[in-house]
Amino acid sequence: MNKFNAFLSCAILLAMTQFGFAQTIVGSAHDFSGQSWNTTTEICIVCHTPHKADVTVADAPLWNHSLSEVLSYTLYASGTMNSIPGQPDGSSKLCLSCHDGTVALDNFGGVTTGSNFMTGDALVGTSLSNDHPISIDYDAALALADGGLHDPGTTSSGLGGTIAEDMLISGKMQCSSCHDVHNSAVGTNSLLLKSNAASALCLTCHDK
Ligand code: HEC
Ligand code: HEC
Ligand code: HEC
Ligand code: HEC
């Protein structure tokens, strides 16, 4: 290896460490292009469509997967909570359109006769009572009331902006406050928004 090549290798290695967290859905748990139940061989189409999208969920990005009809999930409850979690709303409803296990994975693009349901560890189910609370307004007032949460409007998420900018949707904590639905690159699994090594994800919001 000559000097220039050695320099180039270092530069590439550095670039890979810098951008090792580049986000891509290809090859992730959400790449369904190779599934027998997805005859389109496409990736995005299971969740998105350029036309005739389902716009019933607020802010849903060109949604193409059948939504869950469950109206009443069992919610997380605890005496030390300062917020009052509501029924799942916003983008969490999109996740639950597969992860509550009541809608077939192959029910997208208007198909309602699918027969492949989620099983295994990825199944969250209709009881959210043993899951981190979602669909809660997380603002400075909650941080103050709790005493153990950072102010989302002023605290860095470590992802370029504040917690509110990078992790909340319309000021709310949702599934995607911790997960990136399109990301296979953070850690080896769990599609996390950022690494949770040394609990870095948790400590972004929790002042513990
Ligand atoms: C398993 C379902 C799923 C698949 C597959 C999927 N997405 Fe998404 N996408 C979502 C959800 C859910 C959101 C809503 C935002 C969020 O919760 O992260 C979203 C949001 C988006 C957004 C708007 C917000 C943003 O992150 O920019 C774009 C653009 C997008 N997706 C593009 C794509 C493209 C392009 C593909 C295929 C390469 C794709 N998605 C595949 C579920 C999916
Ligand atoms: C179209 C259906 C669908 C939608 C919509 C969907 N998922 Fe998934 N997701 C799946 C399936 C199927 C798996 C399991 C894949 C497997 O078993 O390998 C999965 C796996 C996962 C995993 C585990 C990843 C791993 O590597 O173990 C996480 C985390 C996850 N999903 C989060 C989300 C979140 C958060 C949303 C919404 C923002 C969402 N999903 C939306 C179908 C979906
Ligand atoms: C507070 C952060 C946080 C929120 C909110 C959150 N998750 Fe997770 N989730 C995680 C972490 C961290 C893991 C990895 C856990 C592990 O590896 O032990 C995970 C793991 C998962 C897995 C993989 C489970 C497995 O055993 O393979 C799925 C699927 C999942 N989450 C879906 C969801 C869905 C759907 C929502 C919303 C209803 C949600 N998550 C909300 C942090 C969160
Ligand atoms: C995007 C911000 C955010 C992230 C990331 C996050 N949390 Fe939370 N967490 C919250 C908010 C907001 C609440 C609601 C607090 C309240 O109402 O008192 C909460 C509630 C909780 C509770 C329940 C507290 C109670 O009083 O019952 C626990 C425990 C918890 N989180 C642990 C975790 C762990 C562990 C992680 C990492 C896997 C994590 N959180 C990641 C924002 C976050």
Give the H and E element order: HHEHHEH
Q: Unreliable segments (pLDDT under 50, ≥5 consecutive)?
A: 6-21
Q: Which cofactor or ligand species appear? A: heme C
Q: Describe the largest sheet.
A: 2 strands, antiparallel
Helix content: 10-25%
Radius of gyration, in Å, reads 19 Å
Number of helices: 5
Q: What spatial order of strands do you see in the largest sheet?
A: 1-2
From the spread of the alpha carbons, the general shape counts as globular
pLDDT averaged over residues:
89
How many beta-strand elements? Answer: 2
Estimated structural class: mainly alpha
* Cα-to-Cα separation, first versus last residue: 49 Å
Q: How much of the sequence is in beta strands?
A: under 5%
